[in-house]
């Protein structure tokens, strides 16, 4: 794609802004090879049922199916690299005094591109935790941050549980793993079991029907209401409450910019829509705004 002509008002607004808030969605990681949810043919929800995989009820009904699917997605992310769009957002942060990055993505590609203090509204694949006692679980080491006395409570964990976690920690499948044709990735993996309370370890993501993390949401909505420029990239803007952030920024008087190759419901309401992939458009916007030589 050749260099786009951006509206002068957009570049001027960004250059003058002391407060910029960016909201990203799955489209920003698409050029890193991570599938989006709703793109035709390639989107995850085109192939898999959201209600079978992304609800608390789904995990209750078939934990191995759900854990195996999230492990498949975690594997994709581990193999992926940040793209030029992630890097442009990280560069933007170095030019703007008050910069907030909000993402709906559960990958860590923003962090690996150099962004800090990323607000993950929908959780993170790399942060599973116990559904019983909510202790964080490390894929490498099992349960983290045992409180004093935690060891005393380990008697609830059975030998079988300890064996399951040892197998997970070493990266090999636990006994009981089975292959099934009705699993979306062909691989069912029973979740590890908490060595402290004996409950299941669950993926560190927010499922449909669950609340967003309160602190992240409060910080995100504050940043939407108090920015001069709000940039919304790679999201279909269909999932609430994240989708409402752009309107919050507009209502508070911000210039709202959308970067997306496809139409969305925001097309009629944002100040500017720039059509194209974020891995191409964002580096061009950053270069033009802060006169960075290409
Ligand atoms: P969607 O899959 O709904 O939307 C992705 C958007 O990215 C679409 O509008 C695409 O047009 C756009 N897109 C595709 N390639 C792009 C590219 N290279 N550059 C820029 N944009 C591109 O994903 P989200 O809006 O992130 O939640 O979905 C929101 C939430 O719905 C997700 O966090 C997830 C999902 O269900 C949960 O799982 C709770």
Q: Percent of residues in helical segments? A: 25-40%
Strand content: 5-15%
CATH architecture of the largest domain, by name, is 3-Layer(aba) Sandwich
Which topology of the largest domain does CATH recognise? Rossmann fold
The backbone outline, from C-alpha atoms, is elongated
CATH class of the largest domain: Alpha Beta
The small molecules bound here are:
2'-O-acetyl adenosine-5-diphosphoribose
- Order of helix and strand elements from N to C terminus: HEHHHHHHEHEEEEHEHEHEEH
Structural class: alpha/beta
Q: Strand order, main sheet: write it out.
A: 3-2-1-8-9-10
Distance between the termini: 15 Å
Low-confidence stretches: 146-183
Number of domains: 2
Q: Average the pLDDT over all residues and give the rounded result.
A: 86
Describe it for me?
- By secondary structure, the chain is an alpha/beta fold.
- The protein folds into two domains: 1-34 and 82-126 and 211-294, TPP-binding domain (Rossmann fold, 3-Layer(aba) Sandwich); 37-79 and 129-202, no CATH class.
- Helix content is 35%, strand content 12%.
- It contains twelve helices and ten strands.
- The longest helix has 17 residues, at 63-79.
- The structure holds 2'-O-acetyl adenosine-5-diphosphoribose.
- 2'-O-acetyl adenosine-5-diphosphoribose (OAD) is lined by residues 25-27, 30-31, 36-39, 43, 54, 104, 122, 206, 208, 233-236, 238-239, 259-262, 264, 277-279.
- 2'-O-acetyl adenosine-5-diphosphoribose is lined by residues 25-27, 30-31, 36-39, 43, 54, 104, 122, 206, 208, 233-236, 238-239, 259-262, 264, 277-279.
């Amino acid at each position: 794609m050749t260099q786009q002509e951006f509206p002068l008002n957009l570049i001027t607004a960004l250059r003058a802004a002391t407060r910029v808030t960016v909201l990203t969605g799955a489209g920003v990681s698409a050029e890193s090879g991570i599938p989006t949810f709703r793109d035709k043919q390639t989107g995850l929800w085109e192939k898999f049922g959201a209600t079978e995989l992304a609800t608390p009820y789904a995990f209750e009904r078939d934990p191995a199916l759900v854990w195996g699917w999230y492990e498949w997605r975690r594997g994709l992310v581990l193999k992926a690299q940040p793209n030029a769009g992630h890097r442009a957002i990280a560069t933007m942060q170095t030019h703007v005094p008050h910069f907030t990055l909000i993402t709906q993505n559960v990958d860590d590609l923003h962090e690996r591109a150099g962004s800090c203090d990323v607000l993950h509204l929908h959780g993170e694949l790399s942060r599973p935790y116990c559904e019983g006692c909510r202790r964080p679980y490390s894929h490498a080491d099992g349960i983290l941050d045992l409180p004093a006395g935690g060891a005393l409570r380990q008697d609830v964990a059975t030998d079988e549980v300890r064996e399951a976690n040892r197998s997970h920690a070493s990266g090999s499948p636990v006994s009981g793993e089975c292959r099934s044709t009705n699993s979306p990735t062909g691989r069912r993996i029973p979740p590890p079991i908490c060595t402290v309370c004996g409950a299941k370890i669950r993926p560190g993501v927010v499922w449909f029907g669950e609340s967003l993390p309160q602190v992240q949401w409060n910080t995100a909505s504050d940043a939407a209401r108090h920015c001069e420029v709000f940039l919304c990239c790679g999201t279909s803007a269909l999932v609430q409450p994240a989708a409402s952030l752009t309107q919050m920024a507009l209502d508070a008087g911000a210039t709202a910019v959308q970067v997306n190759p496809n139409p969305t419901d925001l097309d009629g309401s944002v100040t500017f829509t720039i059509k194209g992939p974020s891995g191409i458009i964002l580096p061009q916007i950053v270069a033009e705004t802060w006169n960075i030589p290409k």
